[in-house]
Amino acid sequence: MERFTVTHAGVELHGVDSGGALPAVLLLHGLAGRSGEWSPVIDRIRHRFRVVAFDQRGNGLSTRRPDDLSREAHVADVVEVADHLGITELVLVGQSMGAHTAMLTAARHADLVRRLVLVEGGVGGEGAEATEGTIQWFQGWPAPFPSRADAAAFFGGGETGAIWAAGLQRTPAGLMPQFDVDVLRAALSPVHAQARWAEWAALRCPVDLIRGGQGFMRDEEVARMNQLQPTMRVVEVQQAGHDVHLDTPDEVADVLLHER
């Protein structure tokens, strides 16, 4: 994977690109994530696709405190990265908040997105209490962590815990997150503030939804999503939680590799 940097409107976006002329897949991480968390999925699909992932604004190596954290800015970043890499058509994949960004991008740039794959993410609109509940979890991290092993244990252990721990930054005080919680709140609030049913109904590309059997998606939301997009394929991975791409990368890769 080759690293790249895109700079626009005062924001640096850092990402990775497998290169080549294969059909392109662009992967969007969720809140507090990073492009590297997609590595298990990338390893399973790069023989079939040109794979691109980047640290979204406010996260990872990208600009940590951007002035604009709107939904529109996140969508513009996706378009800017694709344009920078000369990609004119892609499969767009997003997890959690990244799924919300992917959905809005597909609704507004139908010429760019030929297929949409959502991992534990929907139309938003859960309300301010959902934002605060999520932010409280981040505020409860016992950072700095003394070691990656300690961090991995805090994040639940196993491969999923190890991947979360790998995203921490070494500092003289110990291992720290590569984000600021106030930035996360500002970025997440617009997702929960409004349900984007109009954009969802406007989608014209094939849509796949991957749910974790122990994830966060509400059955009633999925049912309405399916009602408005009756050709949507829903894949539920019973043993997975919200981070389906970390818990069961084989299943996520299988969906990507098998188009309808």
Any key phrases for this structure?
single chain, 260 residues, alpha/beta, Rossmann fold, 8-stranded mixed β-sheet, 40% helix, hydrolase
Report on this structure.
The chain has 260 residues and is of the alpha/beta class. The protein has a single domain, classed as Alpha/Beta hydrolase fold, catalytic domain (Rossmann fold, 3-Layer(aba) Sandwich), CATH 3.40.50. It is built from eleven helices and ten strands. The strands form two sheets. Strands 1-2-4-3-5-6-9-10 form an eight-stranded mixed beta sheet, sandwiched between helices. It has a two-stranded antiparallel ribbon with strand order 7-8. Helix 9 (219-228) links the parallel strand 9 (207-212) and strand 10 (233-237). The two termini are 28 Å apart. The mean pLDDT is 97. Residues 23-247 form the AB hydrolase-1 domain. This is Pimeloyl-ACP methyl ester carboxylesterase. Keywords: Hydrolase. GO terms for molecular function: hydrolase activity.
Overall pLDDT, averaged? 97
Estimated structural class: alpha/beta
Total number of β-strand segments? 10
* CATH class group: Alpha Beta
| Element pattern in H and E | EEEHEHEHEHHHEEHHEHEHH
| CATH structural fold name | Rossmann fold
* Count of separate structural domains: 1
Biggest sheet overview: 8 strands, mixed
Low-pLDDT parts are: none
Residues in helix, % = 25-40%
User: Per DSSP, what share of the residues sits in E-state strands of 2 or more residues?
Assistant: 15-25%
> What's the tally of helices?
11
Shape: globular
**Order of strands, widest sheet:** 1-2-4-3-5-6-9-10
Keywords: Hydrolase
Pfam families: Abhydrolase_1
Protein name: Pimeloyl-ACP methyl ester carboxylesterase
GO molecular function: hydrolase activity
